[in-house]
Write a structure and sequence with these properties.
Layout: H1 4-10, H2 35-46, E1 51-52, H3 55-60, H4 70-73, E2 83-85, H5 93-103, E3 107-110, E4 127-130, E5 137-141, E6 144-148, H6 153-162, E7 165-167, H7 178-184, H8 191-194, E8 202-208, E9 217-220, E10 236-246, E11 250-257, H9 260-271, E12 279-283, H10 285-288, E13 302-309, H11 313-322, E14 326-332, H12 335-342, H13 347-355, E15 359-365, H14 374-379, E16 384-388, E17 395-401, H15 405-417, E18 421-423, H16 434-444
Parallel strand pairs: 2-4, 3-4
Antiparallel strand pairs: 1-2, 5-6, 6-10, 7-10, 8-9, 8-10, 11-13, 11-14, 12-13, 12-16, 15-17, 15-18, 16-17
Helix pairs in contact: 2-5, 9-11
The structure holds flavin-adenine dinucleotide.
Flavin-adenine dinucleotide binds next to strand 3, helix 7, strand 10 and helix 13.
């Protein structure tokens, strides 16, 4: 346990940082009053195997991937569960949420805990609600699949494929939970065409609020938006129905370029290819060198990788060659597309940080990342770039050597002046559709008990 002043500093409230519900829940670092009674009643609901208090479990379930930000890493550990609840069916959730409400115990939902940037850290202690035991894939229909929140995205894709369909999208962390991806993630393989997980992917959610009755309710279409990327602060996702498309026959195309600008020109054109690719990624050689050795990845070249339909592979190859690139391999499914997915989005950052300490990263967007990026790269000396092609515009990760927080902040301003849109990954507050989330949370979480500390008051 950290000394009290240190704990206070780490979990200090910033101006406006109070839950959107009526009361601030939990005192950082202090035991939640009533936690023992809460645990006894939870045990009556779940049995002893569903109420875990071993130190190692509490530690493990209080962490996520916040340490990928050196700014957040300096604030860790920032909160610790007092108990971990592990239900094995979503029908148990209303009774647990009602119990948390009555005892005023903070409750932080959790899937696989791979969310970046501290979303899943129980900043005010209380209970972590581990949903990985609620993992049944319930039903597949024409264009949709319904599952419990703890089901793995990889299981959903497998079930969809068995029915001749495929997910609209899944993250590069393929084995993570449906609830975690919807409540904490953004997009991934498939987003090139279908956008983020808030762009129509969700057909229906069953939400459990933290109220006296905790009566579950269903939201559909745009009505689901206050619960997507809301870190569970507006309700616990019990089950979700998400969109499927007819399955396509994918292949992985691996290309190498001698320079960044022609590689980005090829990326921009590949994104517009018809039929649409599922994913197009680009990395500088400094990143490629941190990936596992593979003849499809030239460690001295810029690596452009695309998941394309088999019938589109000849057109994609011709396009690459027209821009001066070399196709190193076309590798069929499942291996080729799986490797390309596993190197997308935040995975290059992960590989770089694993290979060498001392890096930080930003999520960046804008077509200014294509072509000549010398001005962008001059903001932080030693910058390396990873790009993802989207029909809605280019996004990516910018990585550079970490000096200190003021340098990062000044750099963000300089990048924005150059036309780069920057998503600040060095904070753990809900930062999308915040007003919608607050409005929902005022109804669904009147005591401010759901993942408290992550939703700033307006
Ligand atoms: C190397 C790396 C690469 C990544 N790549 C991607 C990527 O390609 N795309 C992407 O979107 N993300 C990516 N992520 C982030 C993360 O892995 C994904 O978003 C993942 O799908 C989160 O799922 P999880 O089960 O680990 O969720 P968790 O980390 O357990 O939870 C995420 C958030 O959702 C909340 N939550 C969990 N379950 C529920 C529920 N049932 N109801 C309400 N709230 C809930 C948690 O409280 C937390 O705030 C990456 C992370 C890393 C470390």
């Amino acid at each position: 346990m950290l000394p009290e002043p240190e704990l206070r500093r780490l979990t200090e409230l910033v101006p406006g940082d109070t839950p959107a519900g009526a009361a601030a829940a939990g005192t950082p670092g202090a035991a939640t009053p009533g936690i023992e009674e809460f645990c006894r009643e939870a045990e009556a609901l779940l049995g002893p195997e569903g109420v875990l208090r071993e130190e190692a479990v509490l530690d493990r379930c209080s962490r996520d991937w916040a340490h990928m930000s050196p700014i957040l890493a300096a604030r860790l550990p920032a909160g610790r569960a007092e108990v971990v609840l592990r239900p094995t069916g979503h029908d148990r959730l209303p009774a647990l949420l009602s119990l948390a409400y009555r005892h005023r115990v903070p409750i932080t939902p959790r899937g696989k805990g791979t969310g970046n940037y501290g979303q899943a850290i129980p900043l005010r202690g209380g209970a972590v609600l581990d949903l990985t035991g609620c993992n049944r894939v319930a039903e597949v229909g024409e264009g949709w699949i319904r599952a419990e929140a703890g089901a793995k995205m990889s299981d959903l894709e497998a079930r969809a494929r068995a029915a001749g369909q495929e997910l609209w999208m899944f993250p590069s962390t393929f084995g993570t939970s449906l609830g975690g991806f919807l409540a904490g993630g953004s997009g991934g393989t498939g987003s090139l065409r279908h956008g983020t997980n808030g762009d129509g992917f969700v057909r229906e959610l069953r939400i459990v609020p933290c109220t006296r009755e905790a009566a579950p309710f269903t939201v559909t279409g745009a009505g689901a938006l206050p619960y997507i990327h809301a870190y569970g602060t507006s309700g616990v996702i019990a089950t979700a129905t998400v969109r499927l498309a007819p399955a396509r026959l994918w292949t992985g195309l691996f290309a190498a370029f001698g320079a960044w600008a022609p590689a980005t020109a090829a990326l921009a054109e590949l994104v517009r290819l018809e039929p649409a690719p599922r994913l197009v990624s680009l990395d500088e050689p400094a990143l490629v060198r941190t990936f596992g050795a593979d003849p499809a990845l030239d460690r001295d070249a810029h690596s452009l990788r695309a998941i394309v339909e088999e019938e589109a592979a000849p057109a994609a190859r011709a396009l690459v060659e027209r821009h001066g690139g070399r196709v190193l391999d076309t590798r069929p499914a499942p291996e080729g597309p799986a490797l390309i997915s596993s190197l997308s989005f935040n995975h290059p950052t992960y590989h770089l940080m694993k290979a060498e300490e001392g890096w930080f990263h930003l999520e960046v967007a804008g077509d200014v990342l294509l072509g000549d990026t010398s001005a962008v790269k001059a903001v932080y000396p030693g910058t390396v770039l990873h790009l993802e092609g989207m029909r809605s515009g280019t996004v990516g990760m910018l990585m550079a050597r970490y000096r200190d927080e003021p340098t990062v902040r000044r750099g963000i301003e300089a990048l924005e002046e150059l036309g780069v849109r920057v998503h600040d990954v060095h904070q753990w507050y809900v930062d999308r559709r915040v007003e919608l989330v607050r409005e929902a949370a005022a109804r669904t979480d009147p005591r401010g008990l759901l993942n408290p500390g992550h939703l700033r008051a307006g």
